[in-house]
Amino acid sequence: MNSSTQPVSPFSCAPFIKEIGRGKEGARGLDRAQARELMAAILAGLVSPLELGAVLIALRVKGETIDELLGFLDALADQSVQTDGTAASVFQQLNDWSVQSGKPVVVIPSYNGARRKPNLTAMIAGLLAEKGFPVLVHGHADNAVGRVSTRSVMDQIQWPMANAPVYLELAHWQPMLAELLNKRAVLGVRNVAHTLVKLLVPSQLKQTLAVCSYTHPEFWNLQRAVFCSLGQTALVLRGHEGEPVAAPYRVPRMDGVKAGQSWCLAEPESLMSEQPDPHPPIDATSTARQIEAWLTKSQVIPHGFVAQLQAIETLIASETAAQS
Q1: What Rg do the C-alpha atoms of the chain give, in angstroms?
Q2: How far apart are CA 272 and CA 30, in angstroms?
Q3: Which 3 state secondary structure label does DSSP give 280?
Q4: Residue 271: helix, strand or coil by DSSP?
Q5: pTM of the entire structure?
Q6: Three-class SS string for 199-266?
Q7: Of 86, 105, 160, 215, which sees the most CB atoms within 10 A?
Q8: 192, 59 Cβ separation under 8 angstroms
Q9: What is the rounded average pLDDT for all residues in the chain?
Q10: Is residue 281 pLDDT above 80, yes or no?
Q11: 3-class DSSP state for residue 169?
């Protein structure tokens, strides 16, 4: 084929790939403005499939920097106009609940799903709702193929409280980011979108507290640093099954972020407490029934959940502490 007949990308990623694609040792991170420009082009559909794959793999090999994540989040905030009617209605409802209760909307990103143990994200969402917090759980069901998703569990729960937690699919307010998550099926590995969704707080919500989890230790500092830079209030914890919920019978490390500062709210327990059932069923129906039982019998709620709820309440009520 003659080169003159080959399709030309409306946006060239070459300058960016030259920075981030030089290999693990030679690659350099983008600054915040560059990252914003790159992600804006991706979200606008201006990047060719070949270049998009190169960008995603280069970032995967190099690892994302704080400035890159901040720039990417800036671009996502600019794209919030894509919010559809379903999302707009949910955000208005949550803002109204927040005003009525005097409490922030607790935003819980849930994108991992469970493989070996029950997915208990809905449990902390339910406990917060019982305390009067408006709760938004957002996720992408297609991302949890082969796993038990939070949506599948929440769909089967009969909530005992008046204002139940709300689940919202990512595609209703960030459709292009949802498409980026789908690239995992093409590339075979996770990409920067999987990092971004855990940090994502809808700009349409007026007062928020984010609950963010990590599995790999390097993300502990990265997530706290991003929330500090954004001035976002957040609880950062080592998640159970990769989800933003404490293990039921063991308290994980939990850190608070508020007004640009971060400090430890709970030290991790070294041992798992004895469990009534060490090998519980993990299907959505069984998990939903267990969560309903815990929510209606407060005296038997596992202490890991209680500790996470207390950490969130302490964070909201606290003055900021010294950066740890």
Answers
A1: 20
A2: 42
A3: coil
A4: coil
A5: 0.92
A6: HCCCCCCCCEEEEEEECCCHHHHHHHHHHHHHCCCEEEEECECCECCCECCECCCEEEEECCEEEEEE
A7: 105
A8: yes
A9: 90
A10: yes
A11: strand
Distance CA 216, CA 162 (A): 37
Q: How far is CA 7 from CA 3, 71, 122, 171, in A?
A: 9, 29, 47, 29
User: What's at 73, amino acid-wise?
Assistant: L
Give residue 210's identity as a one-letter amino acid code.
A
Q: Which domains does the chain have, with CATH numbers?
A: 11-81 (1.20.970.10), 84-317 (3.40.1030.10)
Cβ neighbors of 217 (< 8 A, separation 6 or more) are: none
Question: Quick one: how many helices (H) and strands (E) in the chain?
Answer: 14, 7
Structure tokens at 238: 């080592």
Provide the β-strand partners of residue 213. Answer: 237
What span, in angstroms and rounded, lies between the C-alpha atoms of 58 and 197? Answer: 19
* pLDDT tens figures, 130-145: 999 999 999 998 766 7
CB-based contact 173:141 (threshold 8 Å): no
Please check whether residue 222 is in contact with residue 120, taking contact to mean a CB–CB distance below 8 angstroms: no
Identify the three-state secondary structure at position 295. Answer: helix
3-state secondary structure of 109: strand
Instruction: Please give the single-letter amino acid code of residue 155.
Output: D
CA atoms in the 13 A half-sphere facing the CB of 125: 28
How far, in Å, CA of 42 to CA of 52, rounded?
8
pLDDT tens for 196-233 read 999 999 999 999 999 999 988 889 999 999 999 999 99
Q: Which two tokens stand for residue 112?
A: 């991992």
Give CA–CA dist 219/242, Å, rounded.
Answer: 12
- CB-side neighbour CA atoms (13 Å) of 193: 28
Comparing CA positions, the residue from 155, 106, 102, 162 lying closest to residue 134 is 106
The amino acid occupying position 287 is T
Residue pair 320/259 in contact by the 8 Å Cβ criterion: yes
Looking at residue 82, the DSSP 8-state letter turns out to be G
